[in-house]
Design goal:
The protein is of the alpha/beta class. Helix content is about 45%, strand content about 15%. It has 2 domains: about 10-100 and about 215-270, Rossmann fold, CATH 3.40.50.1860; about 100-210, Rossmann fold. The strands form 2 sheets. A 6-stranded parallel sheet has the order 4-3-1-2-9-10, sandwiched between helices.
Length: about 270
Amino acid sequence: MTAADANAPVGVFDSGVGGLTVVREIMKLLPDEPIIYFGDTARVPYGNKSQETIIRYSRQITNFLLEQHVKAIVVACNTASAYALEEIRDSVPVDMIGVVKPGAYAACQATRNGRVGLIGTEGTIQSHIYSKMIREAYPDYHIYAQACPLFVSLVEEYMLDDEVTRIMAGRYLKNIKQAGVDTLILGCTHYPLLSPLLQEVMGGDVTLVNPAYETAKGLRKLLDKKGLRFHGESTGEKYRLFVSDTPKQFRKFADYILPCTIGEATQVMIEAY
């Protein structure tokens, strides 16, 4: 692996807009770091696609980010982290981290009774990646998983505290709640935006684990370990957004999620990579 430039940007990608929750946490924990984000808005969602397709998409996006000379890549997508990260990381000349491992580790540290709930897309749930990681470390822990496919659409319609969202949360979380979990992993990057509602449904004694925050912590640790923390003077745009489709719609959601207003999103023909 070749030496990376500490003053180069961090690359972040997701299947769409959800990974902006990871960007938001990186901005908070690493405010000096320049970031390049790619959202695959033309091909979202990833949760119902095959592993082969997700690997192909992830390679294309990684190639694009490498062309932007990033120093590390964050796979801010649970499905891509589950299906593609291990398949492509050895062929990439910079460090890559996903959202699954940090989230699974945080859940293991948070649980008191060994009963962990997990919500995510169909792809993430069917991959069993969280369960595998948790049980490798703690074989006696029990994981109760539930796909919540409608949450993504509800979040993207800005229905974060809507009665419809509340009803669906009650239905989705019923069995997990009855299982007596004391920890719930928000296994999709959209879900942290529903944290207040989900906390209300689950009850105050259940710890919500936000993999976006845990991933930002993992990135900070990685950059410190490799001596790659930004230490130069910012030149040009600090944050750059790229998408494969609907840049105006993406920018609207970015303004809604991120703590600062940034430039327009640029559309990229990602299939060329």
